[in-house]
Amino acid sequence: SCRMFVEIFEVGPRDGLQNEPRQIATEDKIALVDLLSTAGFRRIEVTSFVPAKWVPQMADAAQVMAGIARRAGTAYSVLTPNLRGYQAARDAGADEVAIFASASEGFSRANLNATIAESLERLAPVAQAARADGVALRGYVSVVTDCPFDGAVPPQAVAQVVAALRDMGCHEISLGDTIGQGRPETVDAMLSAVLDELPATALAGHFHDTAGRALQNVEASLARGLRVFDAAVGGLGGCPYAPGAKGNVATEALAAHLAALGYRTDLDMAVIARAADMARNLRSA
Ligand code: HMG
Ligand code: MG
């Protein structure tokens, strides 16, 4: 097909499940990842190697990674907040690790127990180790338009953190509207500043759908040239340290919307629908 490809980066098993108050069985998480693996994703974010006291739901990260059936052509990605998390992720055979920072001081304190500068210092050795080991390194910047603690986030603050993560060697940086309060105008203004630091080909959009504007924000990002978007099957999600954060944009809604706009995602929509059902059942069980 000559339609332009857009990658949907599936974050449901991680961003989708991390906020669930009920501890979901490890085997259920594995089953969700295994089903998603048959849908044709290039990358799936499986879990996070973070302290259990910070995110109890992700305490079984190593077991989940050990239990999944890996499909050729799919890379399995995980979050790593520090060197200890990185080492565990590497031991678990993660194909890609993601380091994450905040564009606001308030959210950095709440999510990372550190100032932005301190968090970047902590991430530098993770990036160095990933480069040395040849493990793909992704970066995230949270609260790229609105912070639940500090309010509107200046585009320049986002661009500065993007530049720092770029300098650490991230091959891609995902821009997170953590609490889903972005608007096409604020997303566009943010991207305008970020694109001075990094081309659109090295950026991803990560929109939570709290206010129902995620798809509009995806369109604003497409107009700026972004071609990778994070999404969660069934619209699962929310960040435990971001009051008011609801689900990520739903993979099935995003894929349908992209198709309507004339893009292809190369995903098996029947499998996605089954995975969305499975995800919703995990949540309500
Ligand atoms: P801290 O408490 O300041 O760190 O947390 P610490 O080094 O003092 O460690 C605390 C305890 O955890 C110690 O144990 C460590 O040994 C242990 P204790 O002495 O108390 O028994 N520990 C670990 N255990 C397992 N795995 C590890 C690890 N590291 C230390 N890797 C820290 C600092 C950065 C670790 C913490 O704040 C943290 O992990 N924060 C991340 C919270 C999180 O996962 N949030 C959600 C993901 S981000 C997100 O959802 C946003 C995103 O979706 C994009 C968007 O929407 O914006 C990506
Ligand atoms: Mg998120």
TrEMBL record:
One Pfam family hit: HMGL-like
Keywords: Lyase, Metal-binding
Entry's EC annotation: 4.1.3.4
One GO BP: ketone body biosynthetic process
UniProt-listed CDD domains: DRE_TIM_HMGL (cd07938)
GO molecular function: hydroxymethylglutaryl-CoA lyase activity; metal ion binding
Residue ranges annotated for the Pyruvate carboxyltransferase domain, each copy included: 6-273
Domain of life from the UniProt record: Bacteria
Top-rank EC class of the record's enzyme: lyase
Similarity comment: family membership: Belongs to the HMG-CoA lyase family.
Identification of the protein by name: Hydroxymethylglutaryl-CoA lyase
Organism in which the protein naturally occurs: Paracoccus shanxieyensis
Lineage: Bacteria, Pseudomonadati, Pseudomonadota, Alphaproteobacteria, Rhodobacterales
